[in-house]
User: What shape does this take?
Amino acid sequence: MLLRPACRFILGLVGALACLAGVVGPAFGAPAQGGAAPGIGAGAEGAAPSRGTEGSVVVVGFSGVSWKDVTADTAPNLYRFGKQASTADLVVRTINETTCPTEGWLTLGAGQRTIDDAPACRPPKARSRWTELVEVNSASKYHARLGRLGKALRNAKTTAIGPGAAMALTDPKGRLRADYADLAPIPGSVRGTSAGAADDSGAAARAYLEKAAGSKVTVVDLGAVRRPESQLSASGGGRPGFWRRLGGFFASEPSASRDVTAQISALDARFASLLRAIREKDPKATVLAASLADSQSSRPSLGYFAAAGPRVARGTTLAGGPPLTASSDATRQRGYVQITDLMPTLLDWAAPGSSEAADAIGSTIVSTPNGSGEENVRELVGNEVRSQTVRSLSGPFFILLGAMFAAVLALFLTRSRWKGTTRRLFVQLSTLLAAVPVASLLVNLVPWWYSPRAAGVFVGLLVTFSTLIAALALNPRWKDRSFAPFGVIGGLVVVTLMLDVAFDDVLAYPLQLAALFGTQPLVGWRFYGFSNSAFALFTAGLILSLAWAGERLYSRGERRKAAWLVVAVGAVAVFLDGSAGYGADFGGPPVLIVALGTLAMMIFRRRLTCLRIAAVLFLALVVSTAFAVADYLSPVSERSHLGRFVETVLHGNGLEIVARKLAQVFGNLPWPAIALLVAALGAAAYWAWRLHRRGGFRIGVLARSRAWNELPVLRMSVIVLCWALVVGMFVNDSGILVPAMGLAFSIPLWCVAVVRFEEADPLGSVGAGSQAPDGDVEEMREKATVGGGGASIGEAGASNGREASAGGTAEGLPSRGRADRRGLTLRRRCRARSRRWFGGVWPWARGRGGSAAR
Assistant: This one.
């Protein structure tokens, strides 16, 4: 048989459970009707929109306003409207780090992420640059098609007030079929104007009364709020440089200046006049007010979103209604919607069944009752504070984390000169460093963002949680002192992330959202499931904890329990990561399947042949495809991005998405450079393999490490995790971030295991730059584990004794006596060492025919 029974059983059962999870996942974790996340669906009682109404739809757009800027003093009309509407924080991110007003209006009309290649944010111009913008977006990596909203509404009467509204309703050919009325910008938002100057606040209301009679959809551009250093300019200026944008990760968000406050007040006065006109002319109208872009070019922010009217929810009118919280299937988080959700929502209200909504990357916005209006506004302000605080602390945090990591490595490499206190300090520092990632998630159990000193409270909680976790891992009562941190910290990472993903809709606020090692709402890519950094931590914690637990069960003779442990935990992990109702991740299941399959074979002492590795890779591809196809077979309104990807592949456009993901893996390098880099990596791997076959490839650190030879848990976790992280680097668009995060978490724990093993070793440590005498090496090798890659020390000693009495050694190796070893040539000695170290790991380490005498 090609695969041995135990290996076939484990791989087959993991594959069957994972495939079953992909098939039944949509049934148990599918979004609710209307595309909402579980528990946030439009079908919730009292939140269903009222169909059949004849009221019009009015979109009131502006930019540069967040819920933090809207108070009863600065913007009383926007504040009162939000208290009686369906509200959310709007993620305005398109392609660039910050979004200009032109990009926001283009995204509203396209339903896809758009870009303006201008050197500085320019005022929106009605159709004057349409051909240029179409070419720029067609050539971008997202290939956005502009004007789809105007095309979908071409047979309906529409009205555009303001230049941004005209851009949103222009069709793909640059024609504006809507009635148009111009509107001047807010004083202070455009270079050459001053904030606080006289403004005609009733111009938008008059244009609405004159132009919007009988209009089914009216789009109004009230203007932009811009900070003094980021005023809109038709020429000159430019986007901020690298160092200025980098400074946003170290400095807190600046408070609003007088100029900004004056612009917000002018915008609020315009909104008040317009809202009065809409209520007088069409009381049944549905009004959607949204801030579509950022107020500055160096720092992103969340935008204002509020919608009220019969199309939003039953029983809701412009005169008032129950407070609601908005969401969409694109975020699956209460109080969060994306700018790409606006176009599908407008078409669902004004042109149901339009084919243009099928290609939009967003989802229809739905609403659900949630507390009082003031509580909703407080939560939305807290979301902004939380996101901005974490962004401001991320720079110092990761620099400090990198410095601690460098200190741990430096101390580990010089451990031959340690004293007792240094060893104790190293163990504590390394364990504390490994506890920081999971502590950064658990910190969000406490609503620190409501504190007046949010940053200080956050840092204090992070230090407290990290210290408690490290103290638990270093508890002297643990029997296995070397690997207790593996089980405690690794297991805590796995349990925390599993519960966070499984009960995402139950938690008031997911732990990963706006966390240092989680998802960032300001970035606007992933709001549910595992983020790439969290997935790297999850994979590392899963491998470390399963390697420790599985090896302990196997060494006690409980092989069946070890098998079921790997299968059960692995199946749950794959289900949560790949199921469309939970993680909806296409690149995660392959990494987990590869890691679990390799780990199972190493626990059960099976050689990692090329055929078995290929079988694991094929199984990983089958499982991921099963998840995606199962999601594709669900109703169109309930599909996640997995099902849409399958649809894209069936339409022949899948290679574009794959090419974009691969480009992101390699930092968006040109394709010739990527091909050259891949060729260089392949050539280096082939050269190392050939050099090893010839006996010229040596690893000096492992040659002197007794921990590597005598600790199967260490050996298995290092090999499996490195293999999994390499696969994860190529299947996740974050690229090098995946192995960097996984190794930053795992290396301190590996160092702790080695140091504690050497501390308890009666023979003393061999490593860290020192070379043991030949006699000591021979004595240690007689006691160390060799060959199959994981037998216990007692088993190795018994085997060596039996083979010595028969006149030979394990695997046909020559005698290990000092004279014989000195008589070997360098080439034969290197081959013998490679077989001892990697004989149970890589098949080519055993040489041809299993003989070392060739």
Notes: The two ends are 29 Å apart (CA to CA).
